[in-house]
TrEMBL record:
The protein's name: ROK family protein
Protein family (similarity comment): Belongs to the ROK (NagC/XylR) family.
InterPro entries: ATPase_NBD, ROK, ROK_cs
Top-level division of the source organism's lineage: Bacteria
């Protein structure tokens, strides 16, 4: 049996896993990233996790064909370089070379959302599909694109920043410096902001005085709270338009929804599918994308990173 090591490097945690050649996750280990420290210290922890996992599973390093890492930001994969990562506050970090030296394995890098999309293609909700788009709705809006079975990165890894496409012209400011980005309206962070603003104007809402998050807001909507219902309806409209935009640009076989908001499950998917069927370009004549919930959760990035070496 051959194995690959996958690393999902985030601003909060370093998650490392061993994946077999059937794309099954064998074991995982996670430690805090502590992203405010020098990058070489982060790499040292990544390498320690790799060696610890191998020892814990009594695996000889020779049984692993390589190491893949998914990293947030602009990743120039062929050069093994993190050109820019806002989450990690890294610029021009030679991560591929550093990891190879620290672990002894050949290393491949890609953007973390791209790795998550690849994970869903090899072992998740889009298994066996060739053209897939993944939107992760969490702190921000991440995008991963698979075309003809391969990750699409754009030139020097700077493509597929789907969350930074414009949804509302001259809209609210985004952390990227532009205005009206999808991320400002369709992320879980955006939903919490929208709910907070609504509750401030409607203190009789059952959300008043409660900690706001995606789950609590949707729960209040299900309980019939008018304020939550209005907020969620508006939020879903932003998602509707985002989904149609992704379908019109890529026309994938499957559009996957991941991240915390995907916990809303089938009702969310049913609405999105209905909206896409009605509103995407040439719907009566051309193939219409199916919207699905991503299946692997926070393991998708590890599996996809490992698949960079296995696929």
């Amino acid at each position: 049996m051959r194995y690959s090591i996958g690393i999902d490097l985030g601003g909060t945690n370093i998650a490392v896993g061993i994946v077999d050649e059937q794309f099954q996750l064998v074991d995982t280990l996670s430690v805090p990233t502590q992203a405010n420290r020098p990058w070489k210290q982060v790499v040292a922890d990544m390498a320690r996790c790799v060696h610890t996992l191998l020892a814990n599973n009594a695996l000889d390093p020779s049984s692993c064909i390589g190491l893949g890492a998914g990293v947030p930001g602009v990743i120039y994969s062929s050069a093994g370089t993190v050109l820019f990562s806002n989450n990690l506050r890294w610029e021009h970090v030679p991560l591929g070379h550093a990891l190879a030296v620290a672990t002894g394995f050949p290393v491949r890098l890609s953007n973390d959302a791209n790795c998550a999309a690849l994970g869903e293609v090899v072992a998740g909700a889009a298994k066996g599909r060739k053209n897939v788009v993944l939107l992760t709705l969490g702190t921000g809006v991440g995008g991963g694109v698979i075309i003809d079975g391969k990750i699409y990165e754009g030139t020097q890894g700077a493509g597929a920043e789907l969350g930074h496409c414009t949804l509302i012209m001259d809209g609210l400011p985004c952390t990227c410096g532009r205005k009206g980005c999808i991320e400002v309206y369709a992320s879980a962070t955006a939903l919490v902001r929208q709910a907070g603003e609504a509750v401030a104007s409607h203190p009789d809402s059952i959300l008043a005085g409660k900690a706001l998050n995606g789950r609590s807001i949707f729960d209040a909507m299900h309980r019939g709270d008018p304020t939550a219902t209005h907020v969620v309806e508006q939020y879903k409209h932003y998602l509707d338009e985002t989904a149609v935009n992704m379908v019109n640009i890529f026309r994938p076989e499957v559009l996957l929804i991941g991240g915390g908001i995907s916990g809303e499950g089938q009702p969310l998917v049913d609405r999105l599918n209905a909206y896409v069927r009605k509103n995407c370009y040439a719907a009566p004549y051309a193939f219409v994308t199916t919207v699905k919930i991503a299946a692997l959760g926070n393991k998708a990035g590890i599996v996809g990173a490992a698949a960079l070496c296995l696929a």
